[in-house]
Amino acid sequence: MKRDPLFYKRPAIPGRKLPNSINEKINNNEQHCCEMMDMFLADPRIPLFYSSLYREYDIALLYKGKITALQGLFYCPWCRTKLPKSVREEWFEILAKEYHLDDPYCDEQEKLIPKEFKSDEWWKKRGL
Fold first, then answer.
1. Taking burial as the number of CB atoms within 10 A of a residue's CB, which of 9, 20, 50, 62 is the most buried?
2. How far is residue 62's CA from residue 74's CA, in Å, rounded to a whole number?
3. What's the CA gap between 112 and 60, in Å, rounded?
4. How far apart are CA 84 and CA 96, in angstroms?
5. Is 112's pLDDT higher than 60?
6. Which of these ranges, 12-26, 34-48, 63-77, 99-113, has the smallest mean pLDDT?
7. Which pLDDT band, with edges at 50, 70 and 90, does 79 fall under?
8. Three-state SS annotation for 6-59
9. Alpha carbon of 57 to those of 15, 19, 79, 124: distances in Å?
10. Domain residue spans in the chain?
11. What is the H or E stretch that residue 125 is in?
12. CA distance to 50, 53, 88, 127, per residue, from 33 (Å)
């Protein structure tokens, strides 16, 4: 799939563990590229999310208050800083290769995901 250099779009996957609506937005209190990014990520009215698990920034596309798709960001819309590379593919590859979990979001395999893979610990530990 060819990606636009600034944005990419993917369907919201139920197993991704994102909030179902903007009202359930979680503030992770992390520092980001600029004050504006920090402010908008903290604001529950703004459909902007950061996933520390995958190191991804997304704008949620909503239909009747529910997230239906995610628009990924490669650059900060406010300061134009290039955002860190997503580690989503590495997450799935490592779980498949080292732990033999080929579908980590199915109910059986989700229970087998090591604790470090449920936070940003896994990619920080590996220096990704």
1. 50
2. 20
3. 29
4. 23
5. yes
6. 12-26
7. very high
8. CEEEEECCHHHCCCCCHHHCCCCCCCCCCHHHHHHHHCCCCCEEEECCCCEEEE
9. 17, 14, 14, 17
10. 7-73, 88-125
11. helix 121-125
12. 12, 17, 20, 19
Query: Count of CB atoms within 10 A of residue 40's CB?
Result: 17
Task: Provide the token pair at 24.
Answer: 């359930």
Note the pTM of the prediction, 2 decimals.
0.72
- Token digits for 37? 């990014």
How far does the chain reach from its first CA to its final CA, in angstroms?
Answer: 23
Residue with tokens 């220096």: 127
**pLDDT-based confidence at residue 29 (cuts at 50, 70, 90):** low
Contact 8, 88 (CB under 8 A): no
Strands 7-11 and 66-73: antiparallel
